[in-house]
Design goal:
The protein is α+β, with helices and mostly antiparallel strands and 151 residues long. It has two helices and eight strands.
Length: 151
């Protein structure tokens, strides 16, 4: 029974795509599962990052990279925008869990209005600091990252 449970658990992880991009990222970013309970080292993020995410930064599994605007010349920050089909509340809770498990310090600022939910996360950790914005949109939940270069 125990062996069967372990095999089912391993198969379910691989079926979500959580291990498909491990080789793309060195070091691997922290990815938060859909259930917002476990941070894992890789996930199926659709699309291409312009350059790898910072170590320990939570990314939402199954999110898609939104085509970036042109990057400012000389910018050394990591800035990407992802779109997730999951609810704003799930993405916010999962991202907070991933940041906590990744060793980041977080200041949460709710900037919601009567029309839409949105939160700004001021983060610091792993020799970096930055801002993550999570907002509800008609297309899904957007997750915007602007993370400064290492100190």
């Amino acid at each position: 029974m125990v062996v069967a449970a372990v095999l089912i658990g391993m198969l379910s992880l691989s079926s979500t795509g959580c291990d498909q991009l491990t080789e793309r990222f060195k070091p691997a970013p922290t990815i938060v599962t859909r259930e917002a309970t476990v941070a894992v080292p890789a996930a199926k993020v659709v699309g291409s990052f312009r350059y790898p995410p910072p170590d320990g930064l939570p990314l939402w599994p199954t999110a898609k990279v939104i085509a970036p605007e042109k990057r400012a010349k000389g910018s050394k920050s990591w800035d990407e925008t992802l779109l997730a089909a999951d609810t704003y509340k799930d993405v916010l809770a999962g991202t907070l869990t991933g940041l906590e498990r990744g060793g980041w310090q977080v200041e949460t600022v709710d900037v919601s209005s009567a029309e839409a939910s949105a939160t700004v996360l001021n983060i610091a950790g792993n020799g970096r600091e930055g801002v993550i914005t999570i907002s509800q949109t008609p297309e899904g939940t957007t997750i915007g990252y602007v993370i400064a270069a290492p100190e």
